[in-house]
Give the backbone structure.
Amino acid sequence: MSQKQIDIARSKSLANGFNIDFIKSDIKDLDLKQKFDVVTAGFVFSYAPICTELKDYLRVAYNHLKTDGRLFSVVCNPLNPLRESGVLYRVSLADGSPLKNGSKLCCEFFDRDGKFLCYDYKFFWDRTSIEDSAIKTGFNRLFWIDIKNRETSTDDVPKLKSTNAIFYARK
Ligand SMILES: C[S@@+](CC[C@H](N)C(=O)[O-])C[C@H]1O[C@@H](n2cnc3c(N)ncnc32)[C@H](O)[C@@H]1O
């Protein structure tokens, strides 16, 4: 994320009455010298390209939590990340090899009329690898919460079947 994006986020937040601290850093290097009740990580773990980095992300979360603090994260499709349909987004294997932990995924995004918008790359980590990394980091109570799929479509959001899940862990 660029400094310009951070500056835009800060000015939009202030314009909407939120005084939020925005910090530009690689997660792995983050040390705020402060501990919190809750750390959130929405759709972040899938950016770790190798398992040691996944552990780094969890270590940084752990180090910023008070005793009994909670990590609340949303994980991209830890059961079945591949998605053929081009409705809103499509996920395919970037290098064509079979799906395994650490597989590079190409995620393409489309508007509701099917127009291609942009793409990025993510990496597949299943539930077991995230749990193992969290336990090795020191988290001791782990929970998965399934996100219920939308039952109907609306004008803006078509009905999607997703296996995104919430991973919740306590220090
Ligand atoms: C899919 S976005 C989700 C953002 C937000 N949590 C949300 O739900 O809207 C994930 C973000 O994590 C950032 N990210 C991934 N790995 C990172 C790292 N090692 N250091 C800093 N940012 C990282 C990406 O640049 C991206 O902006």
Observations:
- Residues 1, 26-28, 42-44, 47 surround S-adenosylmethionine (CB under 6 Å).
- Residues 1-30 form one domain.
- The helical segments are 3-15, 51-63, 127-137.
